[in-house]
Amino acid sequence: MALSDRKMPFWDAVTAAQEHALSGDKDRAIDALMAARRAAVESGGHLSEERTALLRALFRTIAPGHEDLPEDPPSMPPAVQRIVVSGIGRSGTTLIYQQLAKLLLLADRRVNFRYEPYLWNIRSPEAKGNPFDMSQLHHFGLMVHTGVPLFLEGGHPLHDPFADHLFDAPWDRNPQQAPDAHLTKVIRGSGRLRSYLARFPDLRIVACLRNPVDTINSSLGMFSFFGEEFHPDDRPRFRDELAARGADVTRLGQPDLSIEWYAQWWQAFTEETLAVAQDYPENVFAFCYEAFQETPEAMLEALMDFVGLRNLGMFMGLSKPAGPTIKATSLTQHDIRVLAPQINYYTDQVLVPRLGAQTALARTKKTVSRYLGGRFSFPLAGSDLGRKCPIQLRGMMLNGASSPFLSLAKRPAHPVALAEVIAQHHEGDPEDLCKPAETVDAIKGGKRFGAVITCHNNQSTVADAVLSCLNQTLPFDEIVVVDDRSTDNSRQILGELEARYSSVRVLALPSNLGPSAARDLGIRELTTDFWTQLDGDDLYWPSKNAQEAAALAGDESAVAFSDILLVRPGQSFVQSVSAYNGRTGPEAWAALMARTPQIPRDMTLSRKLYFEAGGYDMTRHLYEDWELKLRLAARSRTWIRARGTAGTVYNRLSPGLSGVEDGRHARALSQTFLSALAQANAPKDALLPAYDAMIGRFAERNIAVRSRHALETFIARGLDLARLAEHVSRRDTCAMDNADYSLALDKFVAENLREEVTA
Amino acid sequence: MIRFSVITIVRNDAPGVIRTLQSVFAQTYGNFEIIVQDGASTDHISDVLRGFGSLIDSLTIEPDGGIYDAMNRALRRATGDYCIFMNAADFFVDNGVLGRVAERINPQTDDIWSGKALSDETGNVHNYRPPDQFWAGSTFDHQAAFIRTNLMQALEYDTRYKISGDLHFFTRARQQGARFTYDDMVIARKPFAVGASSDFTDRLKDRLDMLEEAWGDQYPVRDLITRELRFNTGRTFDLGQSLIEHMSLDELLAERERWTRVL
């Protein structure tokens, strides 16, 4: 049978009555209600409790004076207690709801419970442990919320039946048994408190108040004030209603997640709550969360007096912090600044009257500084200024499920404690070290600076590597993170950072290409004049960019670098690279060839110089940095050591290349050395000592011996070193295994000797 | 000693072509040339390719008329005995592949010699039909096929095709009497990025039209492909075979699209 064929005269008449009432046609609405009553009587003479109550509610709303229903309602107990716990959210409402529920149950009373009925269909004294998923959504509640103004003072044809259903409905449980009390917790209802009070003059409201910083921060990880998770958002009507109330809404521009919207929402409803509390002192108890923390016992005494329930259990339950605490801050320093007016408003209007000026100010200062200095306080530099804040379904939080934001926020600590390392090695106040550079334009000299971070399965360190770039005293203009096909959680973490920082871009490689190709693609992705690099498990010293930019003074043919702060298990120390300071390019090249003394790493130089030198050799997976530095040196004009304690905090807590066998080390080192011979003119007598110093502990390997022999022969006979370099750089030579390579090298030397003889 | 021409076509896939070339350069078998055709990419790839310098034997960067036109242009420059198309993102499974193939190919008898390719995503061997079902296509992948260069140069790819030009070439070669050899040797890995469903339909129809035209008179092309699609559709979308048993190929494709949209 099709739906339209079913005979439902009662419900059709009820629907018609509501529609007429909504369209303002009161007479036809009354006619329809009368028809509904007739239909109910005709359907067998029995009018169920539910239908009676619904008709009563509708008559009271639409046509007062027509309540002459056939049967009297079951006798209600005289002292029905109606309590609503109201708040913006994240202000202790759930905790108070649960504690009041306990008290009501302990008093052995039959209670109707409603938990956030604008959203959920949860009718239990236990908010936590309920499945917060789509199956629990209260569709009628959502319809009411979206169809009713956010600010409501009097009656409303849609909202009144909803309120009745919350506070006067007998049909929740056994319809013969009227409840003794009703307890409802609402959020997003702070603007409709006057409407509730107009309908139920005996209503008791516990209005929760909490400071804007904690409230908004906590909500940002959980849900949106504006309901985007569940319905077309509240923003436009919120702005329109505010404007109609005469508020300044010029800051509410784009409908994104910017902090300004949250600030306005918090303030509008906090103001309204305070005003209602003032107008209805008998009905409203303003439960200030901070005051509760200061003097919990006094607050609880007052609260229990207010609701007329006294029980010692209250004290025990309320001694915990409110709600699931997020041990991370979603707010950036920018956000804290934006919230300043709200912070001041709350301090003046709520805290000072309750706590006294001194305590109030101290509390506010503590709250704000906790965010500015928090472990996960996002730096301002390069941030998207709070426009992108992730929202998780609160069910995810309450059920302990994970999300990209949470895995980022709760990531394990970096094995290198940067703050400790700074405290140990920086002479002076660490706060001064981290202060933003003041003469930014002068330092940068009109140039732009970028950083390339490479990541391959660095999930436990890469977030801090990126943050160490963002926390620079001189911010990088661009940061490109190249994910070299990580198989761990890195990509998710990086995606979350990219979403938050407009200066961070992630280049996700579809396959693992190795560090040289990854860095090269990252450098190409940059559009800056200068670049530097960082491995995904290392960190930057806070002033790294500032000091190297200052050293360069805009010179695109120079290379700037800093000392290296090496962190090993149980110790950390600065490795000086001062031997390279002030060298010309060729001098630096000669020093690099010997790989001693300590070679600078993660230098800052121009992209122009990088490309002129030919860039990273993407076919190399070992000593690729050294090989590039040789070519850079040959082309550069001067090498400058920047002033500063360190540039890179080099994480050697776990050994790096020790897994690579010696033969491969010897091959990469000797081959790179020989291939570099064509790059610059070095004094011939310096080459063999440089080779010996460079090859170090791998000198005994056959390939190292054969290479040295070739070099020695070429030098001794005065043969062309460029030809030797060309030979070892050939594609087929490079592809040979060590044995073939050594044989080919011997053969090549022999051929050259023969040619010499022939010549 | 057999000389190979490895041909790589790229357009706007820098990481892919780097992966391909890394695997080509590393081949220990010395007697090969690498020919790269870049369809005037708009990303960094042209610069990257120039940066490889003499490692690439023949590099051309120019606009082309589609992938098969680009492959033809590169092919005309090939000088090796056998050529293989390793396009951007395809790569050899290890650095000894060319050496092993050189030992296996018999230049006297093999016009087209094919090993197998793995899926880059799963590492599984791509599904092939047995060689005697060549008329249904999918008997091998170009990433695993070594083709006598002068045969390939004589036939070239038909640039009218967007997708099935490869199969079309192998079909024409067979009809002209080329000798095929199949081998179990694993040659390369290739990404099997799954395209949109409409893409699936277009590809299948494209192939089918081509194969029916070539072999429809001699072999039950449409029938086999319909049966395979029926089995595959039932399995992929968990549909009872009785539900789709009597569906024609077009109905099956429509059903597929419907379920793809739903899922």
In short:
By secondary structure, chain A is of the alpha/beta class.
Outline the fold blueprint.
The complex is a heterodimer of chains A (759) and B (263).
Chain A: H1 9-22, H2 26-42, H3 49-62, E1 81-87, H4 93-106, E2 111-115, H5 139-147, H6 159-167, E3 181-187, H7 193-199, E4 204-209, H8 212-220, H9 235-244, H10 259-279, E5 284-288, H11 289-294, H12 296-307, H13 313-317, H14 333-338, H15 340-355, H16 357-372, H17 394-398, H18 404-409, H19 418-425, H20 430-433, H21 440-444, E6 449-455, H22 462-470, E7 478-483, H23 490-500, E8 504-508, H24 515-525, E9 530-535, E10 539-540, H25 544-552, E11 558-561, E12 564-568, E13 571-575, H26 585-593, E14 604-606, H27 607-612, H28 624-635, E15 638-641, E16 648-651, H29 662-675, H30 684-695, H31 702-717, H32 721-729, H33 731-735, H34 738-758
Parallel strand pairs in A: 1-3, 1-4, 2-3, 4-5, 6-7, 6-9, 7-8, 11-15, 12-16
Antiparallel strand pairs in A: 9-14, 10-16, 11-14, 12-13
Helix pairs in contact in A: 1-2, 2-3, 15-16, 26-28, 29-31, 29-32, 30-31, 31-34
Chain B: E1 4-10, H1 14-25, E2 32-38, H2 45-51, E3 58-61, H3 67-75, E4 82-85, E5 91-92, H4 97-104, E6 112-119, E7 145-148, H5 149-155, H6 165-175, E8 180-190, H7 197-215, H8 221-237, H9 241-244, H10 249-262
Parallel strand pairs in B: 1-2, 1-4, 2-3, 6-8
Antiparallel strand pairs in B: 4-7, 5-8, 6-7
Helix pairs in contact in B: 6-7, 8-10
Q: Would you tell me the overall average pLDDT of chain B?
A: 90
Largest sheet of chain B: 8 strands, mixed
What would CATH call the architecture of the largest domain in chain B?
Alpha-Beta Complex
Low-confidence stretches of chain B: none
Low-confidence stretches of chain A: 1-6, 71-79, 321-327, 375-395
Number of strands of chain A: 16
CATH superfamily of the largest domain in chain B: Spore Coat Polysaccharide Biosynthesis Protein SpsA, Chain A
